[in-house]
Amino acid sequence: MWKKLLLILGCVVLAVVVLIGAGVAYLFLRKPAQAPASSIKVAMTPERIARGKYIFHNVADCDGCHSQRDFSLIGGPVIESGRGRGNVLSQFMSGLPGTVVASNITPDTETGIGAWTDGEKIRAIREGIDRDGNALFPMMPYAGFRNMSDEDVESLVAFLDSLPPIKNPLPKTNLIFPVSVLIKSVPKPTGSVPPPDRSNPARFGEYLVSLGGCADCHTPQDKGQPIPGKLMAGGLPFSTAMGTVVSANITPDQDTGTGKWSEEFFLKKFYDYKEYAEKGPPKSPGPEAFTLMPWLAFAGRPPEELGAIYAYLRTLPPVRNYVDMHPGYAKKTAALP
Could you tell me the residue ranges of all domains in the chain? Predict the structure, then answer.
């Protein structure tokens, strides 16, 4: 009797162990949702390359992570010789879940993406899948890039193909558990994406905001997930080697957001950086002026686009959320004689 019970118990325990082991193996070995990369070869026309350069620099802020920048100057302008070379972001920014690397996306065949097909590049941009079928860390804003139209993503790839190759060996992204497993649920196959509707300013602005990754920075998070009801309410801190900055509330709240801003004032906030973008910004005075917001790049956008972004932001629910964008600095200076 006891022997039978022990035998049954042993079988149950073994079955549970096998099931747990199978579940763990599935989590670690499963591939993210993905479709085969297309066989497209993007046409390298001057018009398409120019459009791709504009998207890279002024719309999607690819420079923000993938290019070498000089943060001793206001706005951290791009160093042209290091455009697209990639960076180890976790050496610059604290709080990331492991070693996080923005890849070398120049056409270098050894350290960049020169051996990738154009279809593989499009899949990585819009679906978050690398050449080997692995999920990219969603700090790369492919969840927003899913909305990038076919024409725009092909233009972006044409520009990437035109970049001078830079040999810059980098380590691979190495994420800690459970983030390394959880990110596998983020990629999704996209399919074809039509051009945005430019006739409706708010809808066009939503498209531009999606490509700009505005929600990724301006929405507060809890354990890496956006807090419900706080879309664009700001308050997400970024601690870097250059200082700490907290994203602004850009909902139309009257007291803590942009509710009192006119469209003219909104555009002026960007165009105040136009001279810096064209002639070069001055030295940064210190952490009180440190910013990761791509002011220099966005200053080169036409009123039609910035106005569309303004129109979209006005459609958001206002969220009351006061943000101290440079925590500790005002308090510190107030204590000075």
Answer: 42-195, 197-326
